[in-house]
Amino acid sequence: MRPSVVLSGDGCEDEYGSEFFWSADRIASENVMLRTDADLAALYMPFDALLFFADAGNGDLFALVPGVRRPDVFLWDHETDSRTWVAPRLATYLE
Description:
Elements: E1 5-7, E2 12-14, E3 19-21, H1 24-36, H2 38-43, E4 51-55, E5 61-64, E6 73-76, E7 83-87, H3 90-94
Antiparallel strand pairs: 1-2, 2-3, 4-5, 5-6, 6-7
């Protein structure tokens, strides 16, 4: 049985409060912080090509790559700084 999904006017979460994707405000603020934090810049490859939209609950983040003609979803691993393909499109990620 699939968990129920709660769609609000901004963002999407399951019945336990885990977010499938963030609100527009959080998407904007998280992406600005990731691109401007000097400590993160010293630890990780640049995030400029990624648009983060959700987290895995363990520090890892899900992202799209805007400007590329591929709607793929990637997972950024905060421990290894790897970027791993996880879905061919956002709809598949949400499924």
